[in-house]
Amino acid sequence: MRRRTLLLGAGALTLSSGLEGCGFLGEQPLQILALQDAIPVQLLDLFRKTNNQKLEIRELKTPAALYASLQSFQDQSAKKSPWRQTPQVPGLASLGDAWLADAVAKQLLRPIDTTRLSNWSNLAAKAPIDWQRSGQIQGQTWGVPFRWGTTAIGYRRDKLKTAITDWADLWQPALKRRLTLPDSPREVIGLVLKHLGASYNTADLNTVSGLQEQLQALQQQVLTYSSDAYLQPLLQADSWAAVGWSADLLRAARQEPELQVVVPRSGTALWIDFWVQPTSSSNSSQTTPNSTSATETTQVESWLNFCLQPDAAARITVFTNGTSPVPIEANTLADSTVGEIAQAVLQPPAIVLQRCEPLLPLSPSTTEQYRQLWQELRTGQKPNPIDSGSK
């Protein structure tokens, strides 16, 4: 899914939800811009049965493409002219957690008034995430979480004699030049931090003993770095193991029976997908929840409340390769057709989940540490000693 890497360019597909009937809320359908496969037909079928509202869904292939679309709405608004039609801004869009803070800083989003969401209380705080606060920035809610997943490991059982269960297994001799890692300093350095018992969000990399040595040893295992094309080498058995995003790896595992997907026992990074409200051309300078029409507000609230109810949450968990933050019946996955591999990835054991963590924004000094360490790892050229940013 390329959750945390800036990759531009993607195709788009406009879908009709097929929610036909009389008495729709408003004359225009609610437009939703979403990541591909984030809104399965099973979810739409349930919405059709419970809501008298029409949807128009447009899908993009990557999170980067979604973010680029949000930027384009603002750019086109600034450049609009009387003779040029500006594309209609959707009422809602999906956006990954890695993009949320930047989108808010660039005023690409409007805050969401959660007091108007009757099912908001279904988002219970559950370690390691306080879900009601997960989309908050400076006291305002900018995103409503609808699914989450992990950075996971996929490996070929037909090539490796020893099962992979944790990050430490990536250093095994059998994986020399057979490992694919994300082209992301945050993910690669982060997994080594976790392997060493530290946090993905460590503020000063200098405090972690053995970090550079372990990174260099891991480098000897790597076949290639890729955040967007790592599945094909794994499916073709050019690589025998890959670190990637759980939704991608689960999808690939359905194609290849020899592919196993695991959430590392010592913990890993979490990703979150939110529903957000894009800033439209008519309200680009406004930052209040009420800066849209009453009809669209009602439509947006209807969809958000729907996604926060248990029946919808169950369909999100079973059919999107991600897990809803809304609690569902314990036997939902066991009674579904997702399989044992997906069950273990979508609902990791509580003790493993407690060791997981979201990727938090880094300070400028820590970001520079990552840049220097990544440069040395990828180019073999040692930059100046890592600067902790302290005087």
List the keywords.
single chain; alpha/beta; D-Maltodextrin-Binding Protein, domain 2; 2 domains; 12-stranded mixed sheet; two-stranded antiparallel ribbon; 12 helices
Short description:
This protein is of the alpha/beta class and 391 residues long. 31% of the residues lie in helices and 19% in strands. Helix 1 packs antiparallel against helix 9 (310-319).
What does this structure look like?
By secondary structure, this protein is an alpha/beta fold. It is 31% helix and 19% strand. The protein folds into two domains: 12-148 and 271-339, D-Maltodextrin-Binding Protein, domain 2 (3-Layer(aba) Sandwich); 150-269 and 344-379, 3-Layer(aba) Sandwich (D-Maltodextrin-Binding Protein, domain 2). The protein has helices at residues 41-50, 63-79, 97-105, 185-195, 211-219, 231-235, 246-253, 294-307, 310-319, 339-346, 350-353, 364-379, and strands at 12-16, 30-35, 55-60, 92-96, 109-110, 125-126, 129-130, 136-137, 140-141, 144-156, 179-181, 222-225, 241-245, 259-262, 269-278, 357-358. Strands 1, 2, 3, 4, 5, 10, 11, 12, 13, 14, 15 and 16 form a twelve-stranded mixed β-sheet that branches. It has a two-stranded antiparallel sheet with strand order 6-7. The two termini are 39 Å apart. 41% of the residues are buried.
How are the SSEs placed, and which strands pair?
Blueprint: E1 12-16, E2 30-35, H1 41-50, E3 55-60, H2 63-79, E4 92-96, H3 97-105, E5 109-110, E6 125-126, E7 129-130, E8 136-137, E9 140-141, E10 144-156, E11 179-181, H4 185-195, H5 211-219, E12 222-225, H6 231-235, E13 241-245, H7 246-253, E14 259-262, E15 269-278, H8 294-307, H9 310-319, H10 339-346, H11 350-353, E16 357-358, H12 364-379
Parallel strand pairs: 2-3, 2-4, 11-12, 11-13, 15-16
Antiparallel strand pairs: 1-3, 4-15, 5-15, 6-7, 8-9, 10-13, 10-14, 10-15
Helix pairs in contact: 1-9
